[in-house]
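name: query_chain
kind: protein
chains: 1
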Amino acid sequence: MITPGIIDYGAGNLSSVCNSFRAIGMEGKLIRTEAELAGVTHLVLPGVGAFGDCARALRDQGLAEPIRRWIDEDKPFLGICIGYQILFESSEESPGADGLGILKGHVRRFPEGELKVPHMGWNSVHPTRQADPIWQGMGSAPYFYYVHSYFPEPEDSSIIAATSTYGCSFAAAIRRGRMIATQFHPEKSQMLGLKLLQNYINLS
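structure:
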């Protein structure tokens, strides 16, 4: 039985994520402690809030190490927005705060210029490997919904699964084994977002 676990660290966009899984026939289980991971087949870390606050909450709840082990064991994992950024070592948003450090790299702010920050609204996503099953049924440049001022710069460019452009090109998504993380919000991206969630579930 497939059971998505949705991590609740007190600031995630939980209702939208839960509703999106219901729309594809899945009932998500909220995860607040390591013990609640029992029976979970897929783990989702949604994101709303600041990098430092997220890192602190995950550690305070005893979830940082279980997340690392989950990813090390190559179980299906999906990080969304801050849940993507927190996988890296550090962020300009929260100087001095350590991320989970699962991936090498730093999270940077969009440069000031003519474009407004935060980057908010729909934008095209360009998969680096079109044949990757995570992009199945979406076309060559699907549109997803963004709300962010910061984006990760992975040290290992081979994990970049898709790019978007907003003043500069940035890593819109990464993929390593069955770990996927996106800067955009699938739960706010209507039918294509639901398709991505279904493709993620199919990784099992």
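note: The chain has a mean pLDDT of 95.
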